[in-house]
Design a protein that fits this description.
heterodimer, A: about 475 residues, two-stranded antiparallel sheet, 2 strands, disordered C terminus, B: about 325 residues, mainly alpha, Cytochrome Bc1 Complex, Chain D, domain 2, about 0% strand
């Protein structure tokens, strides 16, 4: 045993908070999925689709996603630095502020306070709170890394540090707005410029919330849970630098065929295609790592989470660049194809990797084993089926509706002039999507149950584990 | 040595920041200082206090979660949203200069409902209010939530003045007089009035409407398609595409939205209009009605169709209406 104690309670606090907000976010997701085919499921003014959608996206991106990033990054940072957090009490304050912030965010969104920019909906007082939270995170991450007891910084630390700096830049710039009241503001930027800043932010929020910190987890927990070293260090280096370089150029692919200047659209499309390479650098590295011993897929239950996770990351990072092409964009942009794409990344790559990391961490906090591998396996298959059904359904209906929008006869007249004709055909697909969401949600409830039961089991050991005194700044 | 960077966290963080800033500067900061990011169409006016109140409601209710506000330069899209074929190229789809006062842009990313960029040309205010209150009453298969509660909520004049002042600090040219006049203009108005006014303003910065000058109707014109069976059936199809949404599938009107076209009190007077007036009215919309000396609804009503329909098409619709079954 070490002569110091890691801040496990803070890590676990963030994980449990993330799980709580994740359940809320998923339930809201189910409700809005029903609202799309059953308007009677709207309860104006607070519970309409328009107000609930940002609760779903913010709840899962910031509640589940950032909560898990805080907790698991702290775990990774402590282990790789071989020391506790530099400011353990600051991290506890951060945990409470995080939960207060997410709760206030949810209520404010339901009440209709929004800046209207996707993933930057929260009004300016909450933005300030989030900046404070992020500074707390940055101070602890960098402080702990600077005072580390292991000279070499492992790949996961690179990704955590890149996340910290990039999110700070993105969030600060896109949330520049002029307050017009206690909970109302207007974007500092206007028109096409506003659009460009927003999607520079919006796309890279995906890059630095749903990609880099998840890769940090992948590079750390995959070798840990399989006992297999990462296949290529050099590939890690090349993939890392090229990923964080190329990502920032690509935001305008969200604005293809809009009034944004064409040169910016084209530049973004080019870099988006290039982005396949660094993304697949990590995919290849992951596959070859497990490729050293494929029997781990059978013998270690977490391996399949990581392998399927990186597989969906690989599919996501090919599908995304395809969508950026003008010829594809003109058909599928604004359709359900895009939510289908997003949910492959979130329900596939992010959820599988985060859940596997949590499965790895929670038993180790208590020096015990997972409560039930069988439940974990059931969880795996349910979320896999739910996610595939979700995405496939959305891709089909997206292409179907995109085609109906475009269909013209020999004279150039629209075949489906009435917009509702193209909309109503979505409803059966959207019902299947709700079913897919239910399957996924049941899988996630298996996960939650498994984690809680593991903690309960672990607490039995807690009394025995006599904690060693904290050696805060031993050289 | 390159490997040293992986042992120096501060240097590493600085380098990582520089690396992410390269693309940031190239695609976000640099465009910001270029003129092509700040165009403005001639004659662009800021939203009125009432329209701005409506835009605030549009933001608050998350309308951009389901409605886009940008018509792409694709033929099918120009056709669907009525980008005028008669007009210059720029009027056919959304152009950058229309959005110069939009803080933030509201283009959206998902088109669950139709695009609204040209909505001001497409539907009259009298269609929007009942539709917002109960979308399914107007369009039974719609999945849109009901926004009837907007009619019960007033607009705070002082609050809107604060919003106008905030927008002025970021470059929207509101004059002192406009801000001072806001509370009076908003007196007695509801959020529903605001949202309807905002929707009616969309796309209006560019002339996407009538090619024909209003007030130059030639009342002596006779319908060249009158009685032409082929034209009647074509007119019927065009009517279903373009007119039925407001005037009803049987042309007998929709209460509080649009009048019946097949009774004998059309346009508020007994009797019917000459063919030439009919043509001018469909081409020019409500403004033409006033030019013809007929009372219209205050908020307008009929949008101009000159940009979307050729004269022959309009004559076919008239031919259809002339022989449509009377109630």
């Amino acid at each position: 045993m070490s002569d110091y104690r890691y801040d496990h309670r803070t890590v676990q606090g963030f994980i449990l908070s993330a799980i709580f907000w994740g359940v809320v976010g998923i339930l809201v997701g189910l409700l809005i999925s029903v609202q799309l085919w059953q308007p009677a499921a709207n309860f104006p003014p607070w519970l309409t689709y328009g107000r609930l959608r940002p609760v779903h996206t913010n709840g899962l991106a910031f509640g589940l996603g950032v909560g898990a990033i805080f907790g698991l990054s702290y775990w990774i940072v402590m282990r790789l630095c071989k020391r506790p957090l530099l400011f353990p009490r600051l991290a506890r304050v951060q945990l409470w502020l995080f939960n207060l912030g997410i709760a206030a965010a949810a209520v404010s969104l339901l009440a209709g306070y929004t800046q209207s920019n996707e993933y930057a909906e929260l009004e300016w007082p909450l933005d300030i709170a989030i900046v404070v939270l992020w500074v707390m995170f940055a101070v602890n991450v960098f402080g702990t890394i600077i005072k580390r007891r292991e000279e070499q910084m492992y790949v996961s630390l690179w990704y955590v540090m890149a996340t910290v700096v990039a999110v700070a830049v993105l969030y600060l710039v896109n949330n520049l707005s002029i307050p017009a009241g206690p909970l109302k503001s207007y974007h500092l930027f206007a028109g096409v410029n506003s659009a460009n800043v927003q999607w520079w932010y919006g796309h890279n929020a995906v890059g630095f919330v749903f990609t880099t910190p998840i890769l940090a987890m992948f590079y750390y927990f995959l070798p840990k849970s399989t006992g297999l070293p990462i296949y290529s260090h050099r590939l890690s280096i090349v993939a890392f630098w090229s990923l964080i370089f190329a990502y920032l150029w690509t935001g305008a692919h969200h604005l293809v065929y809009t009034p944004l200047p064409d040169w910016l659209q084209t530049l973004a499309i080019v870099f988006t295609i290039f982005l396949i390479a660094p993304s697949w650098g990590s995919v290849v590295n992951g596959y070859y790592t497990v490729g050293q011993d494929w029997s781990k897929m059978r013998s270690s239950y977490l391996t399949k989470f990581f392998v399927l996770g990186i597989t969906f990351y690989g599919l996501q990072t090919v599908q995304g660049p395809t969508q950026a092409l003008r010829v594809v964009s003109q058909l599928i942009h604004f359709t359900d194809w895009v939510p289908g794409h997003v949910h492959m990344g979130t329900m596939g790559w992010v959820a599988l990797t985060v859940c596997a990391s949590v499965y790895y961490v929670i038993p180790r906090i208590y020096g015990t084993e997972i409560y039930s591998e069988r439940i974990a396996n059931a969880h795996f298959w349910l979320v896999l089926v739910g996610q595939l059904l979700f995405s496939l359904t959305m891709w089909i209906t997206g292409v179907r509706q995109g085609w109906m929008w475009k269909a013209t006869d020999a004279e150039g007249k629209l075949v489906y002039r009435n917009f509702t004709d193209t909309l109503a055909g979505n409803y059966p697909f959207w019902q299947v999507r709700t079913l897919a969401g239910v399957i996924f949600a049941v899988g996630m409830l298996f996960f939650v149950y498994n984690v809680l039961m593991t903690i309960r089991k672990g607490r039995a050991f807690e009394a025995e584990a006599a904690p060693a005194p904290v050696a805060a700044s031993a050289a | 040595m390159a490997e040293a960077i992986y042992r120096k966290p501060v240097a590493f963080a600085v380098l990582a920041t520089v690396v992410v800033l390269v693309g940031t500067v190239a695609t976000m900061v640099y465009p910001m200082v270029r003129a092509d990011m700040h165009p403005r169409v001639d004659g662009l006016k800021p939203l009125t206090a009432l329209e701005l109140a409506g835009r605030d409601v549009y933001q608050r209710e998350g309308c951009m979660g389901c409605h886009t506000q940008t018509v792409r330069p694709l033929p099918s899209e120009v056709e669907r949203y009525g980008g005028s074929r008669a007009q210059e190229k720029g009027a056919r789809y959304s152009i950058a200069g229309e959005f110069a006062f939009d803080h933030p842009f509201l283009w959206g990313s998902k088109r669950t409902g139709p695009d609204l960029a040209f909505e001001g040309w497409l539907k009259p205010a009298s269609w929007h209010a009942p539709h917002l209150a109960s979308p399914q009453a107007v369009e039974p298969r719609s999945n849109m939530p009901r926004y009837a509660f907007l009619s019960e909520r007033g607009i705070d004049g002082a609050e809107m003045q604060a919003h106008m002042r905030a927008l002025r600090t970021v470059g929207v040219p509101y004059s002192d007089e406009e801000i001072a006049a806001a509370p009076a203009a908003l007196q007695g108005k509801t959020e529903m009035d605001g949202l309807v006014a905002y929707l009616a303003s969309l796309g209006k910065a560019v002339d996407r409407g009538a090619a024909a000058a209003v007030g130059e109707a030639r009342l002596d014109l006779k319908n060249p398609k009158a009685g032409d069976a082929l034209a009647v059936s074509r007119g019927q199809a065009l009517f279903a595409e373009n007119c039925a949404v407001c005037h009803g599938a049987d042309a007998r009107g929709t209460p509080d939205v649009a009048p019946s076209l097949v009774d004998d009190v059309f346009l508020g007077v007994k009797g019917d209009m000459p063919d030439g007036a009919y043509l001018a009215f469909i081409k020019g919309g409500s403004d033409e009605k006033k030019a013809l000396g007929r009372p219209g609804m205050e908020a307008g009503g009929m949008p101009p169709f000159a940009g979307q329909l050729k004269d022959d098409d309009i004559w076919s619709i008239i031919a259809f209406l002339r022989q449509a079954p009377r109630p």
